[in-house]
Amino acid sequence: MSVDWSKAPEGATHFQPKRADDDFWHAVFWKIVDGVGVEAWQVSNDTDALGHYTRPTWTAETMSLLISRPWSGEGLPPVGVICEFRTGPGMSWSKGQVLAFGGKKVFYQDYGSHEWSRLYDEIEFRPIRTPEQIAADERELAITDICVVMDKDPSRPILREKAGVLYDAGYRKQVAP
Length: 177
Hints:
Number of helices: 3
Radius of gyration: 23 Å
Shape: elongated
Strand order of the largest sheet: 4-3-2-1-5
Distance between the termini: 47 Å
Mean pLDDT: 81
Strand content: 25-35%
Structural class: alpha+beta
Number of strands: 10
């Protein structure tokens, strides 16, 4: 299910969709703190207006239906988020899941290795890259390679622009067999 997070109230961390099999149930935006719903905004079935509740009823069934707000990439990722991380500048990005925070450490499962914890200040996090972002990064690397092959400074804007035109026209470095 796709959630329109632009309609979520400030502070909402989760969304509970309306149950299709029961007209009594409403969709609800939740603010969850330490695993407990502390605020809720019920979406009216008729008008889409939000009703605000500061001490909402919280049930196990509610928890099973929640959809977490996607992490924006700012600050530390929430527990349970699958994201990318690296352990220092120049290191490659790895994919994994944040498992917990404790003291000054973050505990995570690195899908590419057996590493599982680091100090906060030793690790960078970012959301999973979209195919468009990956393609843009590949394009930038290829443009730099074209500049280097021409024995030119790849930081010059005019040269990068011309190399970009070559890349967009389909020119690629040929790999010898």
